[in-house]
Every structure is written in C-alpha cells, then in structure tokens.
TrEMBL record:
This is Glutamine--tRNA ligase. One of its GO terms (molecular function) is ATP binding. InterPro entries: Gln/Glu-tRNA_Ligase, Glu/Gln-tRNA-synth_Ib_cat-dom, Glu/Gln-tRNA-synth_Ib_codon-bd, Rbsml_bL25/Gln-tRNA_synth_N, Ribosomal_bL25/Gln-tRNA_synth, Rossmann-like_a/b/a_fold. One of its GO terms (cellular component) is cytosol. It holds the Pfam family tRNA-synt_1c.
Length: 283
C-alpha cells in the first residue's frame, strides 16, 4: 500500500519517507474530490476489491464506485502512450499533433471532425470484453459527417489543360454551383467558367479500357455545373506526354443537361485556368 524510500524529495526534502501506491491513493483521492464513478480500463478490475475496502474503512467524505470497461482499440493503430512517446522523442513525428498520430490533436489536424469521433465511439459502444474497431469504420463515420456538413469546392491535384475551341476567348461566365447537395440550407455559390480549364489528369485516357467512361478522344462528358464537352484533339510534348486537350462544348447544355435528352456517362470536376488558385494539399 505504500513504499518507504529514504531519499530527498525535490519538494519536501527529507521530511517524509512514506509514499502511497496507486491502490492506496486512488480511492481516497476520488472520495476527497467527491467523484461518484471512477471509470477505469479492464486491467484495473483486479484492483477493485482493494479500492472498495480502503474507501469503506478509511475516514473519507464520500463513497465513489469503480467501474471497468474495455479499451477502445483501432485496427492497425498504436494507441499506447508509452510507444507513441518514443515516436515523439525520437523525432519520427513532428510532435503529438502530427497528422499521422492517433491523438485527438493529430486527428484534428488531419481534418477529422469532433462529431465524427464521438459518433464512432457511441456506435462502437461500451463493453466489458476487449474488441477491435476497424479503422475503416472510423473513416466511414468521418465521411458521413463531412458529407452532411461540409461545403463542396472543386480542385485538381494533377492538372491537365483543356482548351474549348468554340468558346469565346475573352468571355467568362458565372455558373451557379451547389454548396452541399445534402443540405439545401447551405445555399449556392458562383464559379467562373472560361475558355481554358484544368481537369484532373486521371480523368483522361488516350486509349481507354472498356469500362473507362471519363474523357477520351471523340467522347462527350459533362463538366459539373457547366456544359457537355467533347475531346477533339490531344496535344503532346516532345516526350510524348499529353499536355493539352482541344475540346468543343455544346452551349445548349448549360447547367449539365441536354435539351434533346442525350446522356453522358461521366461528370468531371474542373477549375477555370485563369481563375485557379494554387494550394498546398497534404495527403
């Protein structure tokens, strides 16, 4: 219940040599602070009889109760503070709030909403038996929360230039885009549309396989909130890399629908090249 150590203490010097153990101090500290329920992980279950005995037989002002529950374990994730401390002290990560760390501050920097973490914990529940929560389930909760609350924006990570040959060179249109299709109250915004655009490089293939429905030579696709475009020409550099696409657009399809009812199998996100803003993206 206590240790005797004849050594100088940094605060009290050599005035005291008896130091209580965790078991001796736990219940009394809770009682003095008027804690009603002390929640511990399962490894403290064997300590509960001693916790209860000391609270019952010592002159403390209240009677707290210890309750044990299983740890929250994530698959493929190290949650031990002792092991995470080695990563921090060894310089393998940039502190406790490094986005790679499974800490609350790290998850915050990674973009995980607090509501998604709470939702995952609530849906996983409290149990008496150790279990493992799949990391994919946490990510599912994050996607669900972001899908309901986040405003949409368009961006491209690996830009490929698109020139719409039959669009006026000096014309810029302001097209209406929905902020959040899951929340009508989020309203709309306007996005500029011009003759030169950027699309994602992965959204084009010069020789597409059978089930590739995005842009290819001679194929028509929809630009989100904008028009139908058709790829007419592929321009390459000296190394044979595709650097630009020459396309045409159908001015009757503004907003993404064709008056004649024809359908396309793919919708691409895009940004207007003259209005694009550079951004740092951490993946």
């Amino acid at each position: 219940l206590y240790r005797i150590l004849h050594a100088e203490h940094p605060r009290t010097g050599d005035a005291w040599c008896i130091y209580p153990t965790y078991d001796f101090a736990h219940g009394q500290s809770d009682a003095v602070e008027h804690i009603t329920h002390s929640l511990c992980t399962l490894e403290f279950e064997a300590h509960r009889p001693l916790y209860d005995w000391l609270v019952e037989h010592l002159p403390v002002p209240s009677t707290p109760r210890q309750i044990e529950f299983a740890r929250f374990n994530l698959s493929y994730t190290v949650l031990s503070k002792r092991r995470l401390l080695k990563l921090v002290e060894g310089g393998h990560v940039n502190g406790w709030d490094d986005p790679r760390m499974p800490t609350l501050s790290g998850l915050r920097r990674r973009g995980y909403p607090a509501a998604a973490i709470r939702d995952c914990a609530e849906r996983s529940g409290v149990a008496k038996r150790d279990s493992m929560v799949d990391l994919a389930f946490l990510e599912h909760c994050v996607r669900t929360e972001l899908n309901q609350t986040s405003e949409r924006r368009m961006g491209v990570l690996r830009p490929l230039k698109v020139v719409i040959e039959n669009y006026p060179e000096d014309q810029v249109e302001e097209l209406e885009a929905v902020n959040n299709p899951e929340d009508a109250g989020a309203g709309t915004r306007t996005v500029p549309f011009s003759r030169q655009l950027f699309i994602e490089r992965g959204d084009f293939m010069e020789d597409p396989p059978k089930k590739f429905f995005r842009l290819a030579p001679g194929r028509e696709v929809r630009l989100r909130y904008a028009y139908f475009i058709t790829c007419r020409e592929v321009i390459k550099n000296a190394d044979g890399e595709v650097v630009e696409l020459r396309c045409t657009y159908d001015p009757e399809t503004r907003g993404g629908d064709a008056p004649d009812g024809r359908k396309v199998k793919a919708t691409l996100h895009w940004v207007s090249a003259p209005h694009a803003a550079c951004a740092e993206v951490r993946l």
